[in-house]
Amino acid sequence: MKNAWAIRFATDEVLETSVQLGVRNIVFYGGPGVDVLPGTDQPHGKDRNSYDDYAGFRKRIEAYGLNLVACENGFISNPAFYDIAFGGPKRDELIENLASEISDMGRAGIPILGYNWMPNSVWRSGNTVIRGGTEVTAWDSMATDQSSIMQISESTREQLNKYDTSAENMWECLEYWIRAITPVAEDAGIRLGIHPDDPPVPQLGGVPRLLGSFDAYKRLTSIVDSPANAIEFCQGTFSEMEGEDIYEMIRYFTERQKVLYVHFRNVSGTVPAFHEEFINTGYVDMKKAMETYNSAGYDGVFMDDHCPVIVGDSSFPGNWGGYRSRIFAQGYIQAMLEAVTGERPAG
């Protein structure tokens, strides 16, 4: 088991800081549906990233002595890809285009693509205050101010109204995608993992949420029995699932080698109400969680995620989501790895 740092901007400062912190593995927020890889010199306005783009980006990361272990993004939240989520007329064309880019990613030496199946993205219902006056996002199923973190335009709402947005159709479309994309990933040597729905509730904004329970993930991983059909295991979101045992889910999917990498974060509780937490202040026993991964044979990486933005974070380049707070989370993850496995970061 290893630690990884999640980055959105591959600036010299961010990469140098990674090395100084003893981080050796990078998870990059980018991939299909993003017209340029931030931190490179590519021109904007392209249809997609090419093999050369991905290979060049990997080499840039490796030039610092780092490993690019995964890319993750949310292309399905882009209305341009809604035909895949809901079965529109351009579904096969869009899948073919994504398959081509995913194949290029794999051939370029990127081993994992993490993505989600939330057409209207992550939702929250406001903010709350935790340790030291830190403001974090919250969810309450009874709240009246629920909204997507993605700006949903009126044209997007009209577009959604044209589709069959039933859960039955969405499952059919997800299975269609998995069956089409898995052989492509296998041939390219890349594994694909889907992030759970955050928050894990039945529907939001009139659109069902499919992946919000233990049983839903058992169904997903059974669609095609392949190492390429796996899970971007966001422990925070799995921990939000009402009535589920987070440690049982960790063990079950880890033993079956379905966990590609872990968003090692904590939350205050489960649906119907929870809020974000620092990594060491939520309800999940993080040492017990890491011991569970270890005993079940996990050999992947743990990355920081949803780190609360603390004072001074906005002053750093790119404001990439709690720079100082992420450093705190990295220290915690490294200490936990050493406590559980004896592993220490490079000197």
Strand content: 15-25%
CATH class: Alpha Beta
Mean pLDDT score, rounded? 91
Q: DSSP helix count?
A: 11
Structural class: alpha/beta
Number of strands: 15
CATH topology: TIM Barrel
Largest sheet: 8 strands, parallel, barrel
Rg: 19 Å
Shape: globular
Residues in helices, as a percent range: 25-40%
Superfamily at the CATH H level? Divalent-metal-dependent TIM barrel enzymes
Please explain how this structure is put together.
The chain has 347 residues and is α/β, with parallel strands linked by helices. It has a single domain (2-341), classed as TIM Barrel, CATH 3.20.20. Helix content is 37%, strand content 18%. The chain contains eleven helices and 15 strands. Strands 1-2-3-4-9-12-13-15 form an eight-stranded parallel β-barrel, surrounded by six helices. The longest helix has 22 residues, at 167-188. The protein is globular, with a radius of gyration of 19 Å. 44% of the residues are buried. Residues 39-45 and 315-320 have low confidence and may be disordered.
